[in-house]
Structure formats: structure tokens, C-alpha cells
Amino acid sequence: MKKIVILSFAIMLFTASHAQQVLFGGQDIVSPQINDNNTVTFRFTAPKAIKVQLTGDFLPTVKTDTPFGQFDAPGVVDLTEGKEGVWEYTTPKPLASELYSYSFIVDGLRVPDPNNVYLNRDVASVTNIFLIKGGIADLFSVNDVPHGTVARRWYNSPALNMDRRVTIYTPPGYEQSKETYPVFYLLHGAGGDEEAWIALGRTSQILDNLIAQGKAKPMIVVMTNGNAGQQAAPGESPKGMYKPSFMGDTRMDGDFEKAFPDVIKFIESNYRVKKEKKNRAIAGLSMGGFHSMHISKQYPDLFDYVGLFSAAIMPNENAQSEIYKNTEGKLQTQFAKKPKLYWIAIGNTDFLFQANTDYRTILDEKGYPYVYRESDGGHIWKNWRIYLTEFAPMLFK
Amino acid sequence: MKKIVILSFAIMLFTASHAQQVLFGGQDIVSPQINDNNTVTFRFTAPKAIKVQLTGDFLPTVKTDTPFGQFDAPGVVDLTEGKEGVWEYTTPKPLASELYSYSFIVDGLRVPDPNNVYLNRDVASVTNIFLIKGGIADLFSVNDVPHGTVARRWYNSPALNMDRRVTIYTPPGYEQSKETYPVFYLLHGAGGDEEAWIALGRTSQILDNLIAQGKAKPMIVVMTNGNAGQQAAPGESPKGMYKPSFMGDTRMDGDFEKAFPDVIKFIESNYRVKKEKKNRAIAGLSMGGFHSMHISKQYPDLFDYVGLFSAAIMPNENAQSEIYKNTEGKLQTQFAKKPKLYWIAIGNTDFLFQANTDYRTILDEKGYPYVYRESDGGHIWKNWRIYLTEFAPMLFK
Predict the structure, then answer these.
(1) pLDDT tens for residues A335-364?
(2) A33: Cβ–Cβ under 8 A, 6 or more apart, which residues?
(3) Residue A95: inside a domain, yes or no?
(4) Has residue B192 been placed in a domain?
(5) Is the pTM of this model over 0.90?
(6) Residues of chain A contacting residue B16, judged by C-beta atoms under 8 Å apart
(7) For residue A41, what are the domain limits?
(8) Tens of pLDDT along B48-88?
(9) How many domains does chain A divide into?
(10) Are B74 and B57 contacting, i.e. CB atoms less than 8 angstroms apart?
(11) A/B interface, count of CB pairs below 8 Å
């Protein structure tokens, strides 16, 4: 039999790959480099560029004017050109533990970091990410702990008359166990889908770590698609690979809330779950907070734990759905049944801060008990990850 | 209760998003645009650029010299600048049905398409993808058919002394059924991991569609991580977010083959599966073909279906493992037990074409029966997706 040393296969593959990399503009440098003191060095090879810049959510924000008001936008810094066209920037100070995102700007053109394959999509924007460990981001990291399972499944929703996709986290040991588990329904915001919490929210990492530390009970987390007009995330349905947009597939017309029992029915008939109110939680961010508020009051016997994360908690006149009618009466019924936890969290610069303050005033006037958590910052994933790390440990105790 | 119309929430969110998009260089054009006649128009906004080009696997290849020989690399074409700095290129001819990948090159710098959020990672290269339907790519598309479940799970491998990640496709109806199912183990190549077949290989779409058409039997597909030194794909293990490389975590030392019974044991004790040889298949691409060849001969009673896709089917002298010893004797035993299908597929320009021809010569000399499939092209995913669409229908019949 012909003998060929294994080395030759490695060389051939490497060469084939290298030829492709050269053509596809691969760069053989390290970026981002997280230094021992948690400063971070970014590098970008662009020998012909006049200016290479970096924008990221770890840089001081700048006020940006728009026709609808002023927004905090991530800052921009310049890189310095070094040898062989490699541009470089090191943060002047160590970065606090966090999951950060960034992009380069080369002569005005936004470019992802070709040396970093870790990307997150937020609606139609794709940015690089990295983690600084040693603090909260330890909860966002894959650690040497038992891991749960993440499944993408489809269920039928008779109320919406379609098959719909859902992302389901089952805790470590679920498959081997004969136990039943409590269920936490976790809802995304406008422009999001059933991929948002698992990717941007780091849900599986957070739950794995909190459970391993004994801080959260083992639970099933159900991340359903909250857009009543959409079967699944962009690219994951027969609609094909279209360009996602804010509010494109988002409807806030009551249909999602009305159809929510379909999700619960699917979960409770397909998983070993505890089926009492005290073993169900619902929370969501932004539009998902709006959904959580309306679903929990529409079905006051279903959820003992309700979390409104930067919730778009605004009653509206446009929607005709019965879901949005008689809000006061339904809230009265919900709170008469004494939910164990009604948690409202918002950042102090969130554009929904006032709307949440108004809502809390109403709850206060009625004497409905809730727990309030105010954080720094605005309508951003950094806050929603923090809220998840704080909310999950309070559940099912 | 204060009334705020829902419209204001939409406007606020859109504005917040728009402010971010402007800063992150979002572009408000359509690209790629698949025209009615299946020509494709690519657009890129770059008012300051001198030259904008496109490279993709639908363009005629060009011969590229490297120290190790000549390779076919994807071609490059120029875009034409139009109004407001929008550059454009339309393919002169309709593209055949396929899943294609591409990138822009702006003044020498490779840039993904900011208007296309659909990306595939192949080792350390990230490129945009799109589908042309009306032929084979209908099998790669999410269609209005029943969908299986895709789960990312972890299992313990005593032989490798670590927890390892595996991607598992269960067919539509698996969860509701009381049936047992056959199992197809599908292995990736060097530089790949347990994400390769599901992302680049479109396995869940291909299986959903073949099963819906009655062309493939409902089966479980197990895509395990084939790198014995790696727990999980880059970013999915405690090793964190490092830069993936060819052969970086790849070992071809026999340990993966030796530990393979751990995967089977996990699957057979956690899923409702048929456990006879006639209900097990194994196939893999490149290194995964090498693994499939060695695993199937090492355990000659386990697999009735063996698929070598562009297999790195080279015996090697370097590896000391018992797995690679006595290849001739083990093959003799394997073929004496008459596997139902031994399938060898390779592209006629694959750099492993000669190695596969040599291997077939040996099988021919011994009179061991196999089915041979020669396709056009080289060592590329286009071929491996085709092989999967042809191999899966032959299984478990």
C-alpha cells in the first residue's frame, strides 16, 4: 500500500487555505489582543489607507443629533500606522469586565475586524465582539461547568395559523433526569427574533454559570419569536435571506399576546415541566417587556414572575385588539392574585425612562407592589444581559 | 392612564437604530439583488473609493501560483461607480441554482457586504452567502415543509477525558413519535468543527427537504466535533474567543477514531434509535472522510453505510496509533462483513484526486465493492453539499 506521510496532507490543506486567504484578504495578525492588564490592542492591516479608525461601545459616547432628538452614539478613535501597513490602537486604560462590540472605519468605510471571527447581528448590523473576563463577563463566558442544551425547534401555532420557530435552553442534566422543571419565557425586542437572546443576550452561558454557582435554579428558558407576522428569524424561514429591518416584521397589534398560550401548550406537552403559576416566569426587553406586561395581565393565572426590561410599556390607542382594552381592570385582577415578583428595570438614560416612570406612578397610585431596578445607561444589550443575570436568580425560589 | 400612541415607539426605535446605523456605516441599498432572470446585481456604497471589486465563487476561477503548486482561486471583477457613490456589478449571465459566497474588495481591502447579514465562517474566513433557487439550491433553502430540530448538546467522552459538543439533527416528528430512528454520523474536515456541516453544509435544510420529498428516510444526523484536542467550536468552549486556524486544533493521531464509541454510546442512550449495523451510517469530508474510513474499518460491525467525501484517504507513517496499523487486514475484515454501501466521491480537480484514485486501485485489486462518484470541481463545499444530497437518499433502504 502506498505510503504518504500525514504531514503532506496538512501542508496541502494549509496551502489551499492560504491561497484562498490571500485572495479573500486574510490578515495574519492578532486582533483584538487582550493584554495582561485588560487594556486591549486592536490591529488592522491596510498599507494603502489614509486613515484607520475604531468605533466601539467601550469608547466614550458622543452626542448625535437626529430629527427626533439627541442620541448617545459610540465614539471613534484613530489608529496609528506602524510597520508593513499595520495600524494599531491600544486602549489607554484597562477595560472593565464586559462583552464589547466594535468595528473599524477605514477611510470612512466601516469594516469588521478580519482577524476576529466572533460577530453578533443586531437587526441588520453585524459587529465584532470580545469579552473581558474577571467580572460580570465571566457569566457571559463558556466556563468549565456543566452545559445545558440549546435547541432550535418548530411548533405549530393555531392562533397565528403557522409553524413558528423557538429557541429552547434546557439545563444541564435535563435529558438524564426524571425531574420536572420550571419554565422562563424570555422575549426579544422590536427588530429581534428567536436568535436575539441566545446570541446577543448570552442566555445559555449566563444560565449555565448561574446554575453551576447555585445562584439560579435549573430551569427551561423559552425564547420564542415575538413577531406575529414572522415564522422565524431572517434566513430561517421560507421567506429566505432578506435584509432585516426594525419594525419590518414587527407588529404590536395584540396577535402575539393572544397566541401566546400556543407556545405554552407546546412547551408543556413536549417537555417535562412544572405547570403551576409559581413555576412560570415571563420577561422581555423593550417590545418584549411590552409583551410581558400585556401577556401577564391578560392571563393573570399563568405567571408568578414578571420582568419588564427597558419595557416599551406604553398603552396605545392605535391597536384595536382586546388585549389592550381595559388595562386598568386587568392589572387590578393580576395584582389581586399577588404575583410573587413584578420586576421593572430600566437604564437612567433610556429613551423609555419617562414611560416607565409614568407606569410606575400608576402602580404606586394603585398600591400594586413591584421591585424597581434602575441602572446606568440606555436602551442597550449591556443592560439586558445585566438584568438577566439579576432576574434569573430570583425565580422559582 | 396616560395614552401614548404606538407609533411614537416605532419612531423612537427606528431613530435610535438609524443613528447607530449611520455611525456604524450602514448602507440603505439592496445587495445582492437576485433579478427575475437569475442574474445578480451587487451594490456597494463607497463615494471615496478609487476601485471597488467583487470576488466570489460564481466568477471564473484564476490559476494562482503558490510555493506548493498551482491552485484555482475565485476570480475578481470590477464594479462601476454610479450616482451617489454607489458601485454596481451585474453578472452577465444568469447564475445556476447554487449557494454562493462572495466579498467586496475596496481599494485592495476585503470587505463583507454591509447589506447582507448572511455570513458563513470557514475556518477563519467569513464571507457573505446567497442562494439562487430553481435547482439544487432548493434543497439548501428553508421551504414550507415540516422542519426537524437542531440541538447543540454536550456529552462526556471518557476516552478523551473531556466534555465535548455535538450538533444533532432530529427529523420532523421525532419528539411526538414513539418510533426508533436510524443514525447518520456526519464528520467535518480539518479546520472545521461541529458547526461546519450545519452552517456550510446546510444539513438541516437538505434533510428537511429530502425527507419531505420522500427521498430520504427520517433519520438522526450527528455532527460531532472531530478534533480530538478540542472540546467545541471556537468561541463555544472554555478556550474562549481565539482565532481559528487550519490544523490548529486538528490532530490526526488516531485519538478521535479511538474515542468514537463514546459518541455512539451517548447517542444510543439519549435518543430513540435503532442500534443495528444496518441502521448506522458514517460519512465525512476531507479529514472526516479519513476518519470515516478508519472508524468504519476499526469497528467493522458498526456501520453498513460509509461515505468518503473528498477524503484525505492517505495512510500515514507518522501516526503511531493502533488505529492506523494493519490497514489491509482491517479492510479485509470490514469488506468480508459486506457493508451495504461504501461510497467514494471526489471532484476531478481535487488535490486529493490522485490519493483517492490510488485508494480505489487497492480496493479494485482486492475486489472490495464500492460505488464511485466523480464530480467536477475541487475540494469545496459546493461538492460536499451535492454529495450529501446524493448520499442521504441511499441510506437505510
Answers:
(1) 999 999 999 999 999 999 999 999 999 999
(2) A40, A41, A42, A43
(3) yes
(4) yes
(5) yes
(6) 71, 351, 379
(7) 25-137
(8) 899 999 999 999 988 877 666 677 788 999 999 999 999 99
(9) 2
(10) yes
(11) 290
